[in-house]
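Before relying on records like the one below, remember that each one covers exactly one chain. Contacts with other chains, cofactors or solvent are not represented anywhere in the record.
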Amino acid sequence: MTTLLDHGAPGSRRHTPLALLICAAVIAASCGDSNLPTTPTTFGAAGSSSSSSNVSISALSDNIVAQPVARPFCPTVSPFTVPFVVVVNTNGAAGLVVTNFNMQFTDIAGTHLPSVTIPAPVPIQEFGTELTNARDLRFPLSMGIGCGVGRSGVLVVGFDATDRRGNKSTGQTRITVQ
């Protein structure tokens, strides 16, 4: 009586090249570059924009200098940080709450970091709701750059917000980083 070991070894050697060929074909098909994006991810139309209301976003400064970090350690601590302040103009929208910010940095060579989404802090209610509704919402933010990308480029900052009636708003602004 013959066992699997008697016939298995030569048979498995015959199937090894076929198995390797199939694996190589699957890997090559999954790594095709026809579906890769050619532009950075953006949030809505270019420039400052919004949808379904008059809410808009802008930066206090359109040109910001990246600040060096004392002890960088990529990828956990980026070599540079970009501190900035964005202003969400409510334009009289009642009870507007910014839910999150989306940020993406693209250097001057066109290399971009992955998008970063952070939850926005809840605005503090001051005495008198009319005063709060009439005022712009300011948010100090920062983003670490320099791991795998250059120091200079463009930072796109987008936001998502909801007003008291449940209307959603989005918008974005571009900031030049030097």
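The first helix runs from residue 4 to 30.
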